[in-house]
Amino acid sequence: MTERNYTIQQIAEQLNIESFQVNYDTFISTLLIDSRSVVSPESSLFFAINAQRNGHEFIADAYANGIRSFVISDNAYAALYSDANFLLVPNVQAALQQLAAIHRSKFNLDVIAITGSNGKTVVKEWLYQLLAADYNIVRSPKSFNSQLGVPLSVWQISTEHTLGIFEAGISKKEEMAGLAAIIQPGTGILTNIREAHAEGFSSPKEKLLEKLKLFKDVKLFIYSPDYTAGIATRELPGERRFSWSTTMKADLEILFVEPIKGRNYIRARYKNEEIECLIPFSDGASVENGIICWATLLAMGYTPEEADLRLEKLTAVNMRLTLKNGINQCSVIDDSYSADISSLAIALDFLRLQNQHVMKTLILSDLYETGKSDKDLYTEIAALLKQKQVSRLIGIGEHISAYAGLFELESSFYPNTQAFIQDFPAIHFNNETILVKGARLFEFERISKLLTQKIHDTVMEIDLNALANNLRFYKSKVKPGVKVMAMVKAFSYGSGSFEIANLLQYQKVDYLAVAYADEGIALRKAGITMPVMVMSPEPSAFEAIVKYKLEPELYNMDILTAFIDFLPDTQFSYPVHLKIDTGMHRLGFEELDLPDLLPILRLEEKIRVISVFSHLAASEDEKHDDFTAYQIERLLAMTEKIRPELGYDFIRHISNTSAITRHPEAQLDMVRIGIGLYGFDSGLNGKSGLQTVAVLKTTITQIKHVGPLETVGYGRRGILPEGGTTATVKIGYADGYRRSFGNGVGKMLVNGKPAPTIGAIAMDMCMLDITGIDAKTGDEVIVFNNELTIADLAEQIGTIPYEILTNISQRVKRVYFYE
Ligand SMILES: *Cc1c(COP(=O)(O)O)cnc(C)c1O
Question: Considering the entire predicted model, what is its pTM?
Answer without folding.
Answer: 0.81
